[in-house]
Automatic annotation (TrEMBL):
The chain holds residues 85 to 325 of 325 of the full protein. Its EC number is 6.3.4.15. The keyword Nuclease does not apply. Belongs to the biotin--protein ligase family. This is Bifunctional ligase/repressor BirA. One of its GO terms (cellular component) is cytoplasm. Acts both as a biotin--[acetyl-CoA-carboxylase] ligase and a biotin-operon repressor. In the presence of ATP, BirA activates biotin to form the BirA-biotinyl-5'-adenylate (BirA-bio-5'-AMP or holoBirA) complex. HoloBirA can either transfer the biotinyl moiety to the biotin carboxyl carrier protein (BCCP) subunit of acetyl-CoA carboxylase, or bind to the biotin operator site and inhibit transcription of the operon. It comes from Sediminicurvatus halobius. Keywords: ATP-binding, Biotin, DNA-binding, Ligase, Nucleotide-binding, Repressor, Transcription, Transcription regulation. It catalyses: biotin + L-lysyl-[protein] + ATP = N(6)-biotinyl-L-lysyl-[protein] + AMP + diphosphate + H(+). Transmembrane segments: none annotated. It comes from the Bacteria. The keyword S-adenosyl-L-methionine does not apply. Residues 1-176 form the BPL/LPL catalytic domain.
């Protein structure tokens, strides 16, 4: 896709860099490493050389599912691209992680400027680990995976970065018309949480239940002792089965 691309050897955070430009997009930046990579929920994102750190600025007429919904679609497109490259055990973990056998391969941070019910801009940041041992330990119970460890024949890093960047752009282009059909028809096959017992950390409480899937708005459907619950955000942890 012919959109402006900046490649930086080093930056604090590609998301912050693009937001500081105030660009309405479409525009993309890729960094070789980040010194202050940011994750969801105020976490950091370890960004050693080798990993792929990319951010896309994109404007929407409206973003009714919110930035988190867009993140679902991006994670789905990334997982499908990696599977097409031969990483057949890659899946998605609501809300927007790309996983390989319980370990996190990639994460997405979508940051919104403006009102999601009207014209707005989102910076979609994607971090993809290259090798798990370079990332270092995450929090206890959270493991990392790397693309170089799991692809049968890892393509050269620039080619791979290009394919993953294309997946992010396709997801932005597919929104909003492709959103509900993708969640209905493609998400279930890659959903690593379906049928699993999890805890969901909400702003002020934790709920436990069995994941039934996601609905067409991107909400997680959880069967709890109180019945079916629908949640639009939160942090999930899989309980041992
Ligand atoms: C998460 O899983 O918590 C989201 C991680 C997102 C990391 C990417 S790396 C490129 C972009 N720049 C950042 O500072 N963060 C995102």
């Amino acid at each position: 896709a012919g959109i402006p691309l900046t490649v930086l050897p080093e930056v604090d955070s590609t998301n912050r860099w693009l937001r500081a430009r105030g660009s309405g997009g479409p525009e993309m930046v890729i960094a070789e490493r980040q010194t202050g990579g940011r994750g969801r929920l105020d976490r950091g994102w370890a960004s050693p050389p080798g990993g792929i750190y990319l951010s896309v600025a994109w404007s929407f007429e409206a973003l009714e599912s919110g930035p988190a919904g867009l993140g679902l679609l991006v994670s789905l497109h990334l997982a499908e691209t990696l599977r097409a490259l031969g990483a057949t055990r890659v899946g998605v973990k609501w809300p927007n992680d790309v996983m390989h056998e319980g370990a996190k391969l990639a994460g997405i941070l979508c940051e919104l400027s403006g009102d999601p019910m009207g014209r707005c801009t989102v910076v979609v940041g994607t971090g993809i680990n290259w090798r798990a041992d370079l990332v270092g330990p995450l929090e206890p119970g959270r493991e990392a995976a790397g693309v170089a460890d799991i692809l049968p024949a890892p393509p050269p890093r620039p080619g791979l970065a290009g394919q993953l960047a294309a997946a992010v752009l396709e997801a932005c282009q597919a929104y909003p018309d492709g959103f509900a059909p993708a969640l209905r028809e493609r998400w279930p096959a890659l959903d690593t949480l379906a049928g699993r017992r999890i805890t969901l950390q909400l702003a002020n409480r934790i709920v436990t239940g069995e994941v039934q899937g996601v609905d067409e708005t991107g909400a997680l459907i959880l069967r709890t002792a109180q019945g079916l619950e629908r949640h639009l955000s939160g942090d999930t942890r899989v309980l041992p089965s």
